[in-house]
Amino acid sequence: MGIRLYKEPRLEKPDMIVGWPGIGNIGIIAVDTLREQIQAEEFGEIEPWDFFYPRRVIIRADQLEDLVFPDNKLYYKRLEQKDLIFFIGEEQPSDGGGTYAEGEKAYQMANLVLDVAAKFACHRVYTSGAAISLTHHTLKPRVWAVPNKEDLIEEVKRHENTILMSEIEQMGGQGSITGLNGLLLGVAKKRGFEGICLMGEIPDYLSRAPFPYPRASKSVLEVITSILGVRIDLTALDNMAAQIENIIENIYEKFPQEIRDRIEQRRFAIQTKPETITEEDEKWLKEHIDELFKKGGKGDEGPV
Amino acid sequence: MKVPFRLWRQPELQNPSLVVGWGADAGKLGAKVTDYLNKKLGGQSFCEIEPVEFSPLAGVTIDDDLIQFPETKFYSCHKNDLVILRSDPPSYEWYKFLNLILDIAEHYCHVKELYIVGGMIAPSAHTTPRELLGTFNSLELKKALSQYNLARNLDYETPPGQRPTVNSFLLWVAKRRNIPGVNLWVPIPFYLVAVDDPKAQKMVLEFFDQRFELRIDFSDLDEEITRRNERIAQVRIRFPEIDEYITRLESNLRLSEDENERLVKEIERCLKEKSGNH
What integer pLDDT is reported at residue A274 of this predicted model? Predict the structure, then answer.
């Protein structure tokens, strides 16, 4: 179990930006888009075999050529304003075999990521993910910002479209961040790193949809780039968002009228008192979501 | 820290091969083959891996009316210089578990080669001749086994949405440790996957018989194959619809999903009922 660095770049007090898959893949799409746009260079990885079951076997002419595990890669970029390290993981490790990290494995992974941060003298770590919200898919997703130190609160408030937990209706400053996006910042706090989690809003009725929600990734990315003072081209993300919006609109039309009526009120009431979907509505969505979104793929075990 | 295995006897072996069969396998192939070898060769258990780190242990499962409990046991057959591992696959910590198997095999037995048995689900009829396929982690072993006709020049990549088998994972771990190994696969007709397939067992066992010069008398297994064929023949007579499905499979025609389900259900029901009365 360990970190493999292919090279050791000279970096000056870099910030670390971390992405893992999650609801709507909001965080990982934001982080990966930034990594790609600024052309960050791969320089290492966290060895995956202790954490994950392999994804793919490759056999050529009867010979087992390789076993492919989920990637856990490290990248770096020296920018004028700030040096950056990226960590992007294709899966979250979990003792219980769930989708989101939990247990000893998750804790080990969080510490390994922070070992890299410590080695390069990072003092701040960003994670990002999804905030399931009573919003509407036509509204611009806000970014819920949760720091791990009190003196960061004023800083995160300065950036456009961010909102603190205490400013969200019915949250009262309370909540939770599941998986490694949360755990990493808890461990970061314990180890003395500054940390901020940026979560893009996704409507509750889309949180189980089997496709990404790039509108929220864009919101997160706007905040990250504002903090870092970098400009990037968001055209690819806009195009992806436009495609997904068409799919969402088609599906949304198939929702029962009474559910749509309740959701429609959010277009006008989101900032004051949003209309929640009822337990009945939620049950209907749970029961029909796979069918509506035509979720594919079944079975876990391949033949070889 | 507690050692996650118990060794109660140091086996006396020269330069053995390790045969691995998993409890959860198509047609129960791995378990049936390792049980048969142990019975015929007088395999004696000498070590077991404790399940606590590798299985949830949140209660027990029941199979064939019996309580099941995860078990990973090593057996030695000193006359034939073989180590046999019969194991339930782990639920987590796979890499650690698979390395532990090879740690024990290398440290206490000086194992030189690895043979992993596995059943593959096939859309074929039970009357189709079984074949034995090999995927290797070493070119030298592939050459050494060339006389057994295991090679098919297979190219394969796990399709999206699926994961590799634990057999492939173990073969890969062995490769990293420079232990030459082969995955031995037998395609099992899909309607025998939940029961067992003595014909497939014989296919693998004959390979081991030749490879390790075991001189096994297979008359009991031959009888079982005959009985199995007779049972399915009776089912075909009793249920013309089932007969038609199998006839179509014999002609390399595919069945619909509903027909597949009906065939599986009927064959499983009849074989279990018959074996209960037998």
Answer: 55
Taking the Cβ of residue B151 and every Cβ of chain A, the question of whether any pair is shorter than 8 Å is answered with yes
Angstrom distances, CA of residue A186 to CA of A23, A147, B23: 20, 10, 41
The Cα B207–Cα B132 span in angstroms is 9
CATH for the B5-216 domain, from 3.40.50.10900, 3.20.20.140, 3.40.630.30, 3.40.50.300: 3.40.50.10900
User: In terms of Cα–Cα distance, which of A85, A202, A200 is closest to A145?
Assistant: A200
Separation in Å, CA of A46 to nearest CA in chain B: 15
| Contacts with B195 (C-beta within 8 Å, 6 or more apart), sequence order | B27, B28, B267, B268, B271, B272
* Concatenated DSSP letters of A53-99: --SEEEEETTEEEEEE---EEEEEEE-SS-EEEEEEESS--BTT--S
Which pLDDT score is estimated for B278? 42
Q: Are the beta carbons of A304 and B120 separated by less than 8 Å? A: yes
Name the nearest CA neighbour of A139 among A52, A260, A36, A267: A267
Q: Which residues of chain B are under the pLDDT cut of 70? A: 1, 274-278
Q: How far is CA A145 from the centre of its chain?
A: 13
Give the pLDDT of residue A295: 43
Contact list in A for residue B89 (CB cut-off 8 A) is none
Write down the domain spans for chain B: 5-216, 221-277
Q: Is A263 left (phi over 0), alpha (psi -120 to 50) or beta?
A: alpha
pTM value? 0.84
Which of B151, B159, B165 minimises the CB distance to A62?
B151
**Minimal CA separation from A198 to chain B, in Å:** 30
- CB pair distance less than 8 Å for A303 and B134: no
pLDDT 10s digits, A216-272: 999 999 999 999 999 999 999 999 999 999 999 999 999 989 888 889 888 876 554
Interface check for B178 against chain A (CB to CB < 8 A): the answer is no
Domain layout of chain A by residue ranges: 3-234
Cα–Cα distance, B80 to B213 (Å, whole number): 8
For chain B, positions 180-239, list CB contacts with chain A under 8 A: 183, 185
Q: What is the ipTM of this complex?
A: 0.86
Q: What is the pLDDT of residue A299?
A: 28
pLDDT number for residue A270: 52
At B182, is the secondary structure helix, strand, or coil?
strand
Superfamily the domain A3-234 falls into: PAC-like subunit (3.40.50.10900)
Q: B142 and chain A: CB distance < 8 Å anywhere?
A: yes
The answer to whether B201 and B34 have CB atoms below 8 angstroms apart is no
